[in-house]
Amino acid sequence: MAIKFKDYYEILGVPRTATGEEIRREYRKLARKYHPDVNPGDKSAEEKFKEINEAYEVLSDREKRAKYDELGPNWRAGADFTPPPGWEGAGQPEYRDFGEFFGGSGAHNGYDFFEGLFGRRSGGREESGFQSRGANIEAEIGLTLEEAHHGVTKRISFQTTQPCATCGGAGAKDGKTCPTCNGSGLVRRSKALDVNIPAGVRNGSIIRLAGEGEAGIPGGPPGDLLLRVRIEPHSLFRIVDEDNLEFELPIAPWEAALGAKVRVPTLDGSVEMTIRAGTQGGQRLRLREKGVNRRAGGLSDLYVRIRIVIPPNLTAREKELFEKLAAESRFDARELLSRQ
């Protein structure tokens, strides 16, 4: 009776003609991706990791691979097996004994991740010389507009992998698998850093902290920490045109009609601005170099959008003056509508 076919070559993503080096290379890539230490608590990754190691255990051993090529997944029992179409006559692929790569001989246990992936260990000492750079860590850091403008030092905390203190990152201690890191040479730890944020960063800017990412394995250089800047909304200002600031300035009707000098807030303190007589609501006035710091030097601009505000509660005298103005003025605010 035919059994369900399980293609170890497909699991590792290699052709049946793959060399031993190609199999080892793809195994390293997949094992690094799905290792339980890299995916703590992820059951699907754990099952995938077991499947990858099962495939590697077979394909990395000359005799097991030969039996598998002949009998498929039923190679262990040697029972009757019906291979899939095209399986017959595939030929025997080139294979090299991994002993010459790892300083030993014989079959390798595919479940011993760091022995199969990075070489055998003896008393905690690495013998293969293979090293891998640690992965980068991506995180987000929130800043106020003032912090982005002036620059700031902020303390951040994050989780990362670090060399195991028990075995010194070797994965083995006293000739046995390290009980602290289970042979990985790495442990997860909380880490805190004081980060200097330069003046002039923008929303979405990336700050790279070299060497502050995941630890390399085994003993390889660490990755980097990549901090993406998120500028929080401000109560007064908003960023426009990617670089400039905009601020809405409320003024009284008589200030718009007669003109006035008013104080306008900026990130570096208030400045005086002249409102010309006849200024209209919604008009956008420009204050050059009163915006935010630019990384290349200098300041961006601040745009002041005018909003005319009517007094919500008129006194008797104010109401009397507005009534006199209405009677005296010949201005028709809707005259423009008749011209369209």
Describe the structure.
The chain has 340 residues and is of the alpha+beta class. It folds into 3 domains: 8-119, Orthogonal Bundle (Helix Hairpins), CATH 1.10.287; 137-231, HSP40/DNAj peptide-binding domain; 237-338, Urease metallochaperone UreE, N-terminal domain (HSP40/DNAj peptide-binding domain, Sandwich). It has helices at 8-12, 20-34, 43-59, 62-71, 99-102, 113-118, 145-150, 253-258, 316-328, 335-338; strands at residues 121-122, 125-126, 137-143, 152-163, 172-173, 176-177, 186-197, 206-209, 225-231, 237-240, 244-251, 260-264, 271-275, 284-287, 302-308. It has a 4-stranded mixed β-sheet with strand order 10-11-15-14. A 3-stranded mixed β-sheet has the order 3-9-8. Helix 2 (20-34) packs antiparallel against helix 3. The longest helix has 17 residues, at 43-59.
List its traits.
single chain, 340 residues, alpha+beta, Helix Hairpins, HSP40/DNAj peptide-binding domain, 3 domains, 4-stranded mixed β-sheet, 15 strands
